[in-house]
Amino acid sequence: MNESKNIVPEIDCIGCGKCCESFEIGYPNPPKKEMKVIDAVWRSEIDRFKMLVGIGDKITTLDDGDCTWLIFNVPCKYLLSNKTCEIYDNPIRPLLCRKFPYPTTIKNSCPKIRQTKDSEL
Description:
The chain is α+β, with helices and mostly antiparallel strands. It folds into two domains: 49 residues, no CATH class; 53 residues, no CATH class. It has four helices and three strands, in the order αβαββαα. A three-stranded antiparallel beta sheet has the order 1-3-2, covered by helices on one side. The termini are far apart.
């Protein structure tokens, strides 16, 4: 069950499983005047994630102007080979998954929709 108010799974989701092949954490970019101090702090946080043994080499970043996204390129352990979730209707399904997409997410944030739009350019 999806608890997000930002999507109607039966209409908006095409079931590609792309959203479960990686996950992202967004760090809002600080205002320009505060950039120097804050930038050093959260860059060190991102660098610490990248040093994690076994996962650090699977992390990439993307700066979209508003946020710097830390992208963990690791599939969910519950993503089945048919691109469905093994625990979709189970209460142990993480809140991160149940609430996706988030209030700040737009439909273009779906990896499949983004991939399709990019290929049309």
